[in-house]
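Input chain follows. Return structure tokens only.
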Amino acid sequence: MDYAILIKEWDSDSFHRRVLDLEAKGYAPRSGSYRITPEMDPESGEIVHLYSIEMDIVETDNTAA
């Protein structure tokens, strides 16, 4: 079973906090999935960036207690 999570954040600090939290819980970034996408705020015309990455759960053989 695939346990992938897609993280999308407008704020880079929030994005990196979420990635580090998931890594501590046993997730690893999916190769080639990191993206920074520029978007324009339609109200202000300001360019903002959407940070995204896919994270997969890392299966270990030591799951038995």
